[in-house]
Fold:
Amino acid sequence: MTESKGADSSDADLRDQLKSMESKLRRLRDIRQQHNDAGKRSADSRNAIQKEYNKLRNEISLKLEENKEIRNKAKMHQARRDAIQQQIKELIGQSKNSRGEKGKKSPVLELSEIQSQIDKLENMLETDGSVTLDKENKVLKLIKKHSNRKKELEPLVEEAMRIKIDLDNIEGSIQELKIEADSEHASMVGFHEEADKLWDTIKPLFEERDFKKAEGDRLHEAFLECRKQADEVHAEVVTMLEQVNQIRDKLKQERLEAQSWIDDHNESVRKALKTPDQDEKLAGSLTQALLAGTSVSFGGSETGTNANTRTDGRSTRKVNMRRSGAARGNRGRTKSREE
Structure:
């Protein structure tokens, strides 16, 4: 009895502990879900910010490319202006019977002079009918010589910088070149101003881009922190779930043992309540004894329908009742006669 009470007390303690742990387990799962939900919100916000950031970055890239093209145009006009100014200097020096530095001409000026000489020689052959065959051959050879030199100089001079110069009118060419240089300078300044205005619209985009990047990084860190907290709670859930399963297994084992004890007790009771005619082993042993000729005696009283039945079929109980009734009747009549 004491062991049964102790088992019931242990079972109740385990059930209370299991109930408490399951309640804590539900709370931990709720906390883990809250961290996961917070992480999902941070991730969604981060993804939205990143989309805006990527869109803004593409917009900035397009504007920067446009700005670069404008700057390149400005640089092209600047280079052309510088080349024209260099030609002007060399032409001024040539008009004073002087050469450039170390007596060398710039490729731009030399190319312009050669092209001018070729044009003059070709024009002479086309318009002058007094040119003899011998002179024509000499002119053709000179044109060929200038053409070969032109081919050598062309790779050194960009197409945009090739300017024709009238060597017969150097002063006029210088004035024309100055006007053209001023025009190239004005174009360069105009493109730089356009690029500056475009840059003024780009700078705020850089600030917005940096803000969105910082905000995206902050949201990503928040997401990682929520994931970390959720993982920590999940580890607690796993540990507690193992303990809960251990208690459940222990309670299950105790229930199985209790049921086994009840089954064993019921079986022993059933065996104790069996009558001889329900005991197969006893019936078998009696049968073997009878077959072997051994006398068999049964104890106890008769039971059943044959207990009060005589061999002639009449009930012994009824016969006894009649006899006792007849005796009482005779005694009465004898007394009356004596009186």
